[in-house]
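Blinded run. Sample ID left blank on purpose so nobody reads anything into the name before looking at the predicted structure. Input follows.
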Amino acid sequence: MKANKIKTIAIPFDGSIHSKHAFDMALSLAQKYHSKLILVTCVEKINGSWYGKEFTPTYNQDVKKYKEKILRETSKLEQISKKKNIKTITKIFVSDSIVEQILSFSKSSKVDMIVIGSHGRTGIDKLILGSVVNGVVQRSKIPVLVVQ
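Blinded prediction complete.
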């Protein structure tokens, strides 16, 4: 990939400080290369690992609240981008595998680069972990920039 061919950049986003730093870096790259940005949030489907239980009656309510929170945060980032004439959109997925979803989305959307924060949230707000970053870096067919 040539540097001047960075048309679309995906930023896995969970609201953590590391994902916000990744957004800042991606925004700088987008300004330089006139790229489009896609903020990608993946919520893990309930399968025992999100809550540490097999079933939680409040799961759907919690996912809805989390999506609303993410949309409030990404709306602010979209406005920052708009002021710099950078097109930015948000995509939210509920998925069995966060790594698979990021990679699958990046491929189907013809993303040229992934800019990802080095760590994400933990506990009940867990979306992107060091293991997710590692999985994306190891399996991606496109460049991945990991931001501290």
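Unblinding after everyone has recorded impressions. The two ends are 24 Å apart (CA to CA).
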